[in-house]
Amino acid sequence: MISTQQSGSGSSQSPRSPSTQPFLSVSITDPIKLGNNVQAYIFYHVITKTNLPEYQGQEKIVIRCYNDFVCLRDRLFEKYKGIFVSPRSSKKECWREVHFSAEFIKMRRQALDIFVNKIASHHELQQSEDLRTLLQVDEETMEKARPLEEIMNILTFIAILK
Questions:
Q1: What share of the chain is helix, strand, coil (3-state, %, to 5)?
Q2: Virtual CA dihedral for 128, 137, 148, 41, nearest 10 degrees?
Q3: In whole angstroms, what separates CA 68 from the centre of its chain?
Q4: Is residue 127 part of a domain?
Q5: The pLDDT of residue 47
Q6: pTM for the full model?
Q7: Which InterPro entries does this UniProt record tie to the protein (predicted)?
Q8: pLDDT for 55-75, tens place per residue?
């Protein structure tokens, strides 16, 4: 997890207590595979903790798939031309690995965690509407932006969770 405010060695000199310093931390957890082979999707729980006023509430847990992170990266890359947006792993890399093996899923989860936290730690990017959407919008709202086939798989996944 990455905090937006770094604490120095002289934290006792800070006029604000640690609880009032702005922070945004994101954890990508609990990868779950739905389907198999070419039809497989991996979903992740995305846990956001923050005290930034731009965000709704202090903690939010949403479910996202890999393509949601791809869309985030692409949108940020287009909107923030002067800012380096961390690259994400290529979808093609998945086919070089054993199809959705436990090791591959673990590595992708870790890469997504690093990716989204680099964005969350950037002062300007952490305030982007696209990041807030990824981290906070409910699954039903996210579905509207996805292809139909992906929506059907997500609805199946959500039904399994309930």
A1: 45, 15, 35
A2: 90
A3: 8
A4: yes
A5: 97
A6: 0.72
A7: PX_dom, PX_dom_sf
A8: 988 999 999 998 899 889 988
